[in-house]
Amino acid sequence: MLWYAIQTYTGREEKMAGMIRRMVPAECAGECFVPYFEQLHCWHQQNQIRVLRLFPGYLFLSSDDIESLFQRLKMVPAMSKIITAGEFEFIPMYDGEAEFLLQMMDPDHIVRLTYVATDGKNHVSYMSGPLEKCRDSIRNYQFKKRFAQVQLRIAGQEKTARVGIILNDDVRREMAYGKVEAPVCTPERYQASTQKKPLIDLAPGDRVAVIEGAFEGNVAAVSQVKSSDVLLPVHMFGRDILVEVPMVSVKKLA
């Protein structure tokens, strides 16, 4: 089957994927999923693992007959309304792109943490986990924030994604799960409640640049600040719309 990236509104990825899985017969579509990743975050001297969207605004679908799939979706009133409004776009993926992405994820479509050992001078001496499969694509490490920035090609376009890492010091500390965006059957430890603290000091009207994810490169004024996300106006589908962007994916401009 051929693979497609589907671009839609951030925050509606799972709703869109669920509609496709319910409405499209198996002969028209194969797998349909939203990818996620784990990231370690230290809060109140406790390690918390968050499960966040790997590519906000995107879901992925395999199909051998995308035209029939598209026509079937248009026959469903709820889906036809979304299509008419131009709220998503099918983008063919290049050979090997989807396979590489699938290799990095587990069966729940989550990129789990990679264990990374350093020599004490921020030079990586050993790693075990998903990052092993994309060593050559690592742009940089953010050891304090416990992630590596990876350059990936999705539908022929260069995208920067975050892959979570865990260091030796973290292994010796207790961990709990915090914010979990993935709607999967998760272990009980995923349900740990947390208090959310803004990652950077932002207020409505502040200008920020998106440094990674589907909207990388966009510069806009913050419309609304949430606990760990911000709403930004982004030109998409021929008009400016408000999208939800993780706070860790933006940089405040002077």
Detail the topology: elements first, then pairings.
Layout: E1 2-8, H1 13-23, E2 32-33, E3 36-43, E4 46-53, E5 58-63, H2 66-74, H3 77-84, E6 88-92, H4 97-104, E7 110-111, E8 114-118, E9 124-128, E10 138-142, E11 147-154, E12 157-166, H5 168-171, E13 175-180, E14 207-210, E15 219-221, E16 224-225, E17 229-236, E18 239-246, E19 250-252
Parallel strand pairs: 3-7, 4-13, 8-12
Antiparallel strand pairs: 1-5, 1-6, 2-5, 3-4, 8-9, 10-11, 11-12, 14-15, 14-19, 16-17, 17-18
Tags for this model:
16% helix, alpha+beta, five-stranded mixed β-sheet, SH3 type barrels, Alpha-Beta Plaits, 19 strands, 2 domains, 5 helices, 254 residues, four-stranded antiparallel β-sheet, globular
Instruction: Please give the count of helices.
Output: 5
CATH topology of the largest domain, which one? Alpha-Beta Plaits
Helix content percent band: 10-25%
**Main sheet?**
5 strands, mixed
CATH homologous superfamily caption of the largest domain: NusG, N-terminal domain
Overall mean pLDDT stands at 80
Overall description:
The structure is a single chain. With 254 residues, this protein is an alpha+beta fold. The protein folds into two domains: 194 residues, Alpha-Beta Plaits (2-Layer Sandwich); 59 residues, Roll (SH3 type barrels), CATH 2.30.30. Helix content is 16%, strand content 41%. A hairpin with a 2-residue loop joins strand 3 and strand 4. It is globular and about 60 Å long. It starts with a strand and ends with a strand.
